[in-house]
Amino acid sequence: MTTLKDIAEETGFSIKTVSRAIHNHPDIKLETKEIIMEVVRKRGFTPNWAAQSLRNQKTNTIGYIIPNITNGFFSEIGIAIDAFLLQTQEKMKSNLSVLFLQRILMELF
After folding, report:
1. What whole-number distance in Å separates Cα of residue 99 and Cα of residue 80?
2. Which of 36, 102, 99 is nearest to 69 (CA)?
3. Which of 14, 16, 51, 70 is 20 to 30 Å from the Cα of 79, by its Cα?
4. pLDDT by residue (tens digit) across 49-86?
5. Contact, 58 vs 94, CB < 8 A?
6. 62 and 24 in a common domain
């Protein structure tokens, strides 16, 4: 798996510059961004959302605990939450996720 460090070493730019180019920071010159993004495409780099969550201490995860997953009412709410997050994700250009957990399973822990 390619890391920011790998891209920085290949391009000769700092890790911070590579990160800024990937996230379309306005202070990065167009030529610099083009060089970095070419290596990003060539190596098939994708951001590691788990690593970003650890660094930012923010997971962008919503937990939804339901008493019974087979109950259609709660399932419909879950489907609506998932659909809403998908739309929000596209508008915000961020990675959001929802965690569904049935309450019965929680009682086992």
Report:
1. 13
2. 102
3. 51
4. 777 778 888 887 888 888 877 888 888 888 888 888 88
5. no
6. no
* Extended strands (E) in 28-105: 61-66, 97-102
d(CA 35, CA 32): 5
d(CA 22, CA 59) in angstroms, rounded, equals 20
Total domains present in the chain: 2
Residue 52 lies inside a defined structural domain of this protein: no
Residues 40 and 78 in one domain: no
Beta bridge partners of 84: none
Q: Rounded distance, CA 89 to CA 23, Å? A: 16
Give the side-chain half-sphere CA count within 13 A for 46: 3
Q: What is the DSSP letter of 94?
A: S
What CATH number is attached to the domain comprising 38? 1.10.260.40
